[in-house]
Amino acid sequence: MILSILLSLSSLAFAEVPDTLMVVDSPSKVLITESPEGTRITVTNSEDGTQNSHFVEYAPGAKVSTSRRSTKSIINIPGFDCLNKKERCGWAIGIDGLCVGLNQAHGQTGGGGLQWSKSFEISWLSCFNVGYIFSRSRIYVGLGFDWRNYKATADGKWLEPSASGGIEWGRAPEGSLVKSSNLKVFSLQLPLMYEWRVPKSWLKLKLGPILNFNTYASLKGIYDDAAGNRCEYFRKDFDRRKVSVDLFGAISYHSALGIYVRYSPMKVLNDASLVNFSPFTLGFTFLL
Question: What is the CA 168 to chain-centroid distance, rounded?
Fold first, then answer.
């Protein structure tokens, strides 16, 4: 036991200290060249341009393995270089998941009547998007769809087109019982999103504006007439706002389930409409 310790100490005492291969005060470029005979390292001095080199010769029959790794974005955009070379960066194509929530008709005019608890939204934020990934962030623009339903069931009122081109509250035929009245809006949407992954967690934040092209809107009502027969009416001869902008924010866990809010400072219908409002939505995200 003692003999083995002494031998170990003696081997440490006589261990060779590595020699300094070269000293270059102001290096500007390092070139490593490998051949079957060995490896040559050449360093260029930035002050006078002189080159210092050192050759490491391989022993006969030696087996040498090398590896090389580099990270490079597909396109170099100033200010968008990777902050952490271990993170993926560059242009990428993807999709977003679904958003399902309840709609509030914020700031209703015309006496109110649209109910938050019975109005809902179904949205596919982007069925296709393209963006740039850098560090833990991603900025992208996408193409998606949105369908919103605003519903009223109280006081026997229903929505109908007004003389000004918008909508107003009306009354069902005498003796009938109103069951519901709905305003539905379908939109083609272009979200511009910033996405950030929270360090050391599975949380992901997403926020940005959404440009909506409101391509379709309709009114639908259900009522029972005086004889008790179930009746429906359908109208779409009124003016909607053709283009609007929403503000969107969401937080999700593991990209599977999350919550979101969505608000538009713009009114849904034209300014002359007697019943008008700004939509505010709160709901859940899936695979976002």
Answer: 37
pLDDT tens digit sequence for 34-78: 777 778 888 888 667 788 887 777 777 777 666 555 444 444 433
At 86, the amino acid letter reads K
Rg (CA), the chain: 34
pTM for this entry: 0.70
| DSSP conformation letters of 158-176 | EEEE-TTSSEEEEEPSTT-
DSSP calls for 31-97: EEEEETTEEEEEEEETTT--EEEEEEEPPTT------------SS--TT-S-SSTTS--EEEEE---
Identify each DSSP E strand in the chain by its residue range.
27-35, 38-45, 51-57, 90-94, 98-106, 115-134, 137-152, 157-161, 167-171, 177-197, 203-224, 230-235, 243-253, 257-263, 278-286
Q: For strand 137-152 and strand 177-197, is the pairing parallel, antiparallel, or unpaired?
A: antiparallel
Nearest to 72 by CA among 50, 55, 89: 89
Tell me the pLDDT tens digit for each residue of 216-231.
999 999 999 989 999 9
